[in-house]
Amino acid sequence: MRDSGRIGTRLLLFVSFCVVLFMVADWFTSGAVRQYMRPVFSPVVGGAERVARVFSQNEFWKTRRALQDEVAKLTEELARRDVGTAITAALQSENDLLRGLMGISDSGVTVPITSSFSSSPYGTFSIGGGSSRGIHEGDVVLARDGFVLGTVTDVSINSAVVRAIFAPGIPSEVVVGEVGFSLSGRGGGNAYAEVPREAPLVERALVIAPFLDNRPVGIIGKIESASSSAFADVYVSFPFNPNTLRFVKVVPRL
Amino acid sequence: MSRIRVALAILMFCSAFLLPWWIGAIVGLVLAVRYRAWEVVLFGVLLDVLWLPNGLFFGLPLASCFALVAVWLLEPLRRQFMFDYAE
């Protein structure tokens, strides 16, 4: 008993020592060690995601899965309508016009999402395209309808890590109409902000991020304000379920 | 290593790829309470290697730090309460 205890302690000491060495080396090389190791695990991440997809579409889960899909689809449809097709279309055409005038085109690449959104404690996910596809650090990752999902933070040859725009605790400066405020990410495609009660905000309004080339990042889902408070709680989310996404578009930042 | 420990470790490592990360965190905590679980430290490193973006928290690998702190801080607790403690 005592011998195995000693071995356990020694093993733990050895592993801890190696990990501390790794942390120090990674710190001093600004993440180069991590970037070197990441491609080793990328195929495992992609493979695991594929296995999960096959498993979830298995016959055994079919009934439950079909219902879940239907509910997700209907919820998504509802949310999509809520965005206000007319407003979005108007904004989009205005945006296209302005981009055309400035000579800017969204020449991005479409890549698959290769990981689950919930596996990362840092609000990150991986995509199946890297420097070989012309993806660079800082590029913007878009979902359908042009909503920003996040920005590329680490690039390998065939994969990249994307930090979600609403990663937990990450602040983002946004505007709604003429009101500017700071959003704090909550993870899972949700964010929160405190704004003065008098601010003319309405639910379902489009939230724009000026620092991401004036692209939309979400819609206001709910506004709550207590009569005793000078501030209102604003909850922002994507108008779609990010877990249903399979592909994203990566475009360079202007 | 006991079978329970191996099973919990597999579940923990799966959460880094497939399941929500907090499942792995809970399993890791359970392992760290019961055993001198060096695998929890490796799990922390794996999370950082896979998911830590550049520039976040000054590049500090938080998962590795938490794993190390959890495993070592729980050592006195393990000694005190696990009377059959050997692993």
Give an account of the 3D structure.
The complex is a heterodimer of chains A (254) and B (87). Chain A is an alpha+beta fold. Chain A contains four helices and twelve strands; from the N terminus they run H-H-H-H-E-E-E-E-E-E-E-E-E-E-E-E. In chain A, the strands form two sheets. A six-stranded antiparallel sheet of chain A has the order 1-12-3-4-5-2, covered by helices on one side. A six-stranded antiparallel sheet of chain A has the order 6-7-8-11-10-9, with no helix packed on it. In chain A, a hairpin with a 6-residue loop joins strand 10 and strand 11 (231-237). In chain A, 30% of the residues are buried. The model of chain B has no long low-confidence stretch (mean pLDDT 84). The chains are: A alpha+beta (254), B mainly alpha (87). The A-B interface holds A 1-2, 4-5, 8-9, 11-12, 14-16, 19-20, 22-23, 26-27, 30-31, 34, 37-38, 41, 44-45, 48-49, 51-52, 115-116, 118-122, 124, 126, 137, 153-154, 161, 163, 170 and B 14-22, 25, 35-38, 41-42, 44-56, 59-65, 67-68, 71-72, 85-87.
Q: Can I get a quick summary?
A:
By secondary structure, chain A is of the alpha+beta class.
Number of helices of chain A: 4
Tell me the total number of β-strands of chain A: 12
Described by strand count, sense and barrel closure, the largest sheet of chain B is:
none
End-to-end CA span of chain B: 8 Å
The total of helices of chain B stands at 5
Query: What series of H and E elements makes up the topology of chain A?
Result: HHHHEEEEEEEEEEEE
> Distance between termini of chain A?
64 Å
Helix content of chain A: 25-40%
Strand content of chain A: 25-35%
Characterize the largest beta sheet of chain A: strand count, sense, and whether it forms a barrel.
6 strands, antiparallel
Low-confidence stretches of chain A: none
Secondary-structure-derived class of chain B: mainly alpha
Strand content of chain B: under 5%
Give a topology summary.
The complex is a heterodimer of chains A (254) and B (87).
Chain A: H1 2-28, H2 32-56, H3 62-83, H4 85-102, E1 109-112, E2 124-127, E3 140-142, E4 148-155, E5 160-164, E6 171-176, E7 179-187, E8 190-196, E9 206-209, E10 215-224, E11 231-237, E12 247-251
Antiparallel strand pairs in A: 1-12, 2-5, 3-4, 3-12, 4-5, 6-7, 7-8, 8-11, 9-10, 10-11
Chain B: H1 3-17, H2 21-34, H3 38-51, H4 62-73, H5 75-81
Helix pairs in contact in B: 1-2, 1-3, 2-3, 3-4
